[in-house]
Design a protein that fits this description.
The chain has about 80 residues and is an all-alpha fold. The protein is built from 5 helices and no strands. The protein has one domain.
């Protein structure tokens, strides 16, 4: 999968369109896409669903704020471009 797709999804969410971002990432099942998916559900406040996607991404549920996680995700994916 092209990491630019995940960058786009993250930027779309940052600009306020959670639904569109979610529609993009739910099409992919890579670990990074699963992490973005997890982040989105954590942002949504549906923690049981977020935990499921963090597990699929093989990542712990963060104990820090969403803005920090967004930046961590963005930086992680951007390194792959």
């Amino acid at each position: 999968m092209d990491p630019k797709i995940l960058i786009e999804a993250l930027e779309i969410e940052k600009n306020g369109d959670w639904d569109r971002s979610h529609r993009i990432v739910q099409q992919y099942l890579t670990p990074d896409a699963n992490w973005v998916h997890a982040y989105l559900h954590r942002k949504e406040g549906v923690l049981w669903n977020a935990r499921y996607w963090y597990e699929r991404a093989n990542r712990p549920v963060p104990d820090y704020d969403l803005d920090t996680e967004w930046q961590e995700l963005y930086d992680h994916v951007a390194k792959q471009i």
